[in-house]
Here is the input.
Amino acid sequence: MSDPWGTTVIGNRTKQGPSVIRNASDLNKARLKGAVETDRKLSQANKVTSGDHARIAKLDRDNEVAPPPKIAPAVGKAIIQGRNDKGLTQKDLAQKINETPRVLQDYESGKAVPSQVVLSKLERVLEIKLRGADIGKKLEPKGKKKEEKKDGASAPSGSK
Here is the structure.
């Protein structure tokens, strides 16, 4: 009977694993036999780039979210001036507004992202305006505006 899949030889081992090539002549022999495959690696400078990559990169840059605006330098100077007028240190003022001294440093140096809550606390303690058009202007006490309106309404108007 014949074996339909071919003959099987037991006991004859051939070396099939990779071997180390020690010199150029061994490398050339292996290339001639077809046992070695060589691929050229292209550096970034040798690659041909299409215009699509540049266009996509430009789109990515255009779609980036802009960083939030920092506090204006005029506000920082007004905080420093108001703090010095009250005779407070950064640490004292930070304790009064219930914030860390680092937050106050960031506001004074103009590195902080403005928070309306922190600005309102600073306005209340320093009694100066830190938001709007008149930055650094003294705030009027709350009751004073109401009293002026009452006085103006009770004054007699017109002559007979």
Q: What stands out?
A: The helical segments are 24-33, 51-63, 73-86, 90-96, 101-109, 116-126, 142-154.
